Amino acid sequence: MYQDVSTASQRSSAVSPVVALLTDFGTSGVFVGVLKGVIARIAPHAQLIDLTHAVPPQDIATGMWELEFSYRYFPVGTIFLCIVDPGVGSGRAPIAIHAGDWYFVGPDNGLFSLILQQQTIHAATALSNPAYRLPHVSSTFQGRDLFAPAAAHLAAGVHLKEFGPFIEPQQLQRLEIEQPLVVGKDIQAEVIHEDHYGNLISNIPASLLPANGQFFTQPGIRLFLPKRQVIIEQRRRFFAESPAVEQRKDEPFLYIDSTNYLGIAVQNGNAAQILGISVGEPITLRLA
Amino acid sequence: MYQDVSTASQRSSAVSPVVALLTDFGTSGVFVGVLKGVIARIAPHAQLIDLTHAVPPQDIATGMWELEFSYRYFPVGTIFLCIVDPGVGSGRAPIAIHAGDWYFVGPDNGLFSLILQQQTIHAATALSNPAYRLPHVSSTFQGRDLFAPAAAHLAAGVHLKEFGPFIEPQQLQRLEIEQPLVVGKDIQAEVIHEDHYGNLISNIPASLLPANGQFFTQPGIRLFLPKRQVIIEQRRRFFAESPAVEQRKDEPFLYIDSTNYLGIAVQNGNAAQILGISVGEPITLRLA
Amino acid sequence: MYQDVSTASQRSSAVSPVVALLTDFGTSGVFVGVLKGVIARIAPHAQLIDLTHAVPPQDIATGMWELEFSYRYFPVGTIFLCIVDPGVGSGRAPIAIHAGDWYFVGPDNGLFSLILQQQTIHAATALSNPAYRLPHVSSTFQGRDLFAPAAAHLAAGVHLKEFGPFIEPQQLQRLEIEQPLVVGKDIQAEVIHEDHYGNLISNIPASLLPANGQFFTQPGIRLFLPKRQVIIEQRRRFFAESPAVEQRKDEPFLYIDSTNYLGIAVQNGNAAQILGISVGEPITLRLA
User: Which of B193, B199, B196 is nearest to B272 (CA)?
Assistant: First the structure.
């Protein structure tokens, strides 16, 4: 499916390339606006889309998961500008990666671990060429001075190879990702994300669950929260399923989240608050 | 004034159609970004504008009011993608409506009640044609899989009739909207919105108030908060009116909000906090 | 470097002019979305960039600093639409300024003080021409009815002189800006900003500090917080410098912020919370 085209601008020809932004900058100040000003100066035709700026400060793993939940839905040639960068100014390399149908620009600190695991890596380079940075690069806001200019120059049609020397994909940093552990009929896993509604997303992919809807009907499936006195047996295809059962209103249930991972929810309620649990909570799913 | 043009793209010709987004998705995660990625893929020339993503989770009535406060200011042909959808995955129909000068895409759950009340309905359809959905439609994020693709295909020039069968306007869901009740010289009403500054907006439209500025000058007008020991007599044309009266600094006053409904404010203060009241509070305006 | 071109649209020719938005509107409601709808109607080709909407309500000084930290990074011809306007509806003039390479639209209340101090003022006008306002101008949301239309008409190519009479630059409102006071080897200053990470930015510009990196190496430099029992001697070029020194993990240090002002930070921590200080805190930097 993937055609080896060498620049984002070639691919999109008549259409503006998309630059999608994922950061831990928050929206309380002007950091994100400044990134966009820098990009608009270099690549005035780029279309800017905010993916999220609410990654908790310095939380690389959450940034990695948020990217995993979203990148596939973006146009071919999209340039993901991803900045969660506690090591800004230190030795960590600034990089750009061409992987699958997309480009990824950011620090080499593990933020792209799941991309590297899932997609074919066409090329990766260190962003060392001063021609594609702002004239003065600060030691504390390289998003503005280095990463945004690189993403913008990519959007303006500069080849990946112009930015600096190629890096071997196997040399790129990867986070140790907690994989669910299958032990007989048990899957030992953890909560890796809490969404805006308080739904809890686990690291159990739908591919580990009984297929063809049997996850919802097969008896005996239950989720244990070892640190709590809680077992969840109820499963639902969607949040408002069996809404007539009023007495079960605040009961948590299992569902397959739109991210394609197993989730825990409460209908019209906040599961994280009701259960009192959050990211990192160990869980065990028993399949029989 | 309205010309019966059949697609958004015809209307805007040289200009990109606007897709305006109103959801309860919040901005803590990637939900909104993913919607935009999906739209950019299908309709790369669409201009995306965030209306709000801070509708309280599952609060259809607030979404309805926020839309009422804003849609008239948008360009002819704007497509409003509105997702406050507690019934996602259940039997509620996904719909698109061509009403007045605009298009509205979302769940048929009452979100569009005020549009239906105020605008001429040219056409409404159920979004059942799989050609205008993503290949896999999840049961929990139909904003991504179904509504965003529909809005994007509309923006790309697909006719409303292509999306599915027409629905008779009178069959569309409507919320029961609390109308102010005029009893002699009293208007019994309620607070329907609190804005970012803590100003409280009522459901009393300016059209029920004495015209030509007489609301501000006519003696005897006062607002009662039956559940509190509070009567508000002061009225102001704008927030900083009579700013010299320092001793009245924290006093609440009545004004005509920019939404064209009666409001309650405190100058440079948060009326909702100072009065301790919020959405749903009953109020009575006495006009003599 | 600056060429005297008279309209934003001439300058950008093939490229859409940027309209950058800075307000205290927050993102909990539809205020910002409505501004954008109004602009899209008048100037459909304008590119809209959010600078920030999180200026604390009515806090003109913070708005002024946020603009200072960002405007230089935006494209030539950018129109900054800035609305922090506690005097809305009162006598304060709505204005547009052409200063340096950019345009600034907003209330004449001091928001542009630092622009006026730093840039050449080419022209300033009062926005009195009703042709460039919405038909009805409310007394409480002139961002929508007056400022956004003015910014949009500028983006659409209308000359500054069409909006109303010219104003002499020296007649424009200026805030009294706390300048750092140099007394021998001491610089008496204050904290003027707290960023998303809790880093504290002072009003001491880098130009007052020892040059060529000597600020980081010269012995004896220390910051006093007169209201606390705190002296900060540690200085870092970047946040992750000397990360091996684990016992110094929560220690505050001085750095030169990306805004080019002296800052106080804690590595991977929130300096404002850890030190318990915020905007307005007096500080003294001793340079020997």
Answer: B199
